[in-house]
């Protein structure tokens, strides 16, 4: 469509994907890795936009925001907090984490969580926070 803005933005992310593809021996990068790369690109652009706004460069901030919005259209939605809570409750009820050393409980819970859920489909900070709350509230 001769949209130079979109093509340039997409090419920049594709170059990161190709670079990641070259680091994987005898395989291609999987969907999870591609989604993670695109999510990181969106986060970088949003961070840059905030820094440009702080420096009173709204023109550059607008460009970064448009790029982040464009790349976001290619991403699947993140799991909601309610979905994460449900999965964490299921894991806690299925596994006997009470017998695990209290210092290792969170690690065991997160390990079980990520064996069920792809990391690229959740906000890692939110999962950490929710896991900590669930362990604090479980008997």
UniProtKB/TrEMBL annotation:
One GO CC term on file: mitochondrion
Subcellular localization, as worded in the UniProt entry: Mitochondrion
Presence of keyword Chloroplast: no
Predominant localisation class: mitochondrion
MF-aspect GO terms: carbon-nitrogen ligase activity, with glutamine as amido-N-donor
Keywords annotated in UniProt: Mitochondrion
InterPro entries: Asn/Gln_tRNA_amidoTrase-B-like, YqeY/Aim41, YqeY/Aim41_N
Family: Belongs to the AIM41 family.
Protein name as it appears in the record: Altered inheritance of mitochondria protein 41
Species annotation: Rickenella mellea
The organism's taxonomic lineage, starting at the top: Eukaryota, Fungi, Dikarya, Basidiomycota, Agaricomycotina
């Amino acid at each position: 469509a001769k949209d130079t803005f979109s093509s340039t933005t997409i090419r920049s992310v594709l170059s990161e994907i190709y670079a990641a593809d070259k680091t994987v021996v005898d395989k291609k990068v999987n969907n999870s890795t591609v989604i993670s790369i695109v999510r990181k690109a969106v986060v970088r652009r949003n961070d840059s936009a905030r820094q440009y706004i702080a420096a009173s460069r709204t023109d550059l901030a607008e460009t970064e925001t448009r790029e982040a919005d464009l790349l976001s259209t290619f991403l699947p939605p993140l799991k909601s907090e309610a979905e994460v809570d449900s999965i964490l409750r299921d894991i806690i009820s299925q596994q006997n984490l009470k017998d695990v050393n209290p210092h290792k409980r969170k690690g065991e819970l997160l390990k079980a969580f990520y064996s069920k859920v792809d990391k690229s489909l959740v906000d890692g900070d939110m999962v950490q926070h929710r896991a900590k709350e669930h362990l604090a509230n479980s008997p």
